[in-house]
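OP here, attaching both records as promised.
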Amino acid sequence: MNIRPEHLLSVIVPSFNRLDEIRDLLLSLETQTLERKRFQVIIVDDGSTDGTGDWVEAFKQKSTLDLVFLRQDHQGPGSARNLGM
């Protein structure tokens, strides 16, 4: 299980070839005023081939977000959501 009890909110995002949307989401979450320790973001890459994984890994290195990045072979959104839980 990836959700930590100290967090008020966990944002679980399954993704397949949605680099632009993931980029917009994470950049937007960087501007949130909720304390970083109060929420986490879990991105589950469902076998993307558009560079999503590389971009998220690079973003994670410079981000202040509590960001968990998981990858799996393409199995569909339900499987990706379950992995994020």
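Record two, same layout:
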Amino acid sequence: MRARLEQELSGLFITAAMVEARDPYTVGHAWRVSRYARLLAEGSVQSEETIALVSIAGFLHDLGKIGISDSVLLRPEHLIESEYEVVKEHSTVGVRMLDGHPLAAFLGEAIRHHHERPDGRGYPDGLKGLQIPLPARIIGVADAFDAMTSTRPWRRPLALEAALQVIEAGLGSEFDAEFGARFVSLARAGAISHILGHSDLGVPVQECPACGPVVNVFRTHRDGDKVYCRLCANEFVVSHPQGKLAITATGSKGRPSVAVPEPDAELISRLVLDCVAHLPLQ
């Protein structure tokens, strides 16, 4: 049973990672949302099983974006209304992708409702307040914060305090009052510094200085390894001066194949094993 669950979760995580990797500006988003959500759950949920499920749902929350075309998903500017309506479908598409999965009931609620709002102005069902399932209320805060503090083609990220002030201003309307306030408190206490601006533990996000998107660097990369920008194909070499990750341009270009998304297999394996360890096996 354990091996089967690990295999099924690995498949979902790889799919989510590949969907995310289609947009080089969002590298690390699923991992960060999962970690933020786990932090929030640890402060309010007693069950290790529920905490693990919230963490899983955080990683998979955008799974349904597999159904969004590149022309919409990768649009380098604000979406027009018709395109936004297409994007909103990702929450229901993600639920359908879980059909038959043993964790579908819990994960499906989180994925379907992570864009609901306490004031009822969210989607897809316009739920209000505590009608919104607990994991979705948690992930909604985590997802919005990471979106605000990440680079997009049309804007730079908000500074930490500016993003926290947006959450504070939206408590009880855009964001769940309990989890939004808790997130702000955790952030101001420094509890998210190892997540903010990272794509894995100890792996700060590296942006291409030439064109802006994230250059994918894994924990398994060693000094001297080559990595590439998936947009401009610029080549970089990995190093760790004074123990800190850095990438340096070599002046060379990679082959066209560097544009192909690549999931971080070691990260996914680590997350799956950690989560499954806290789930009951029947």
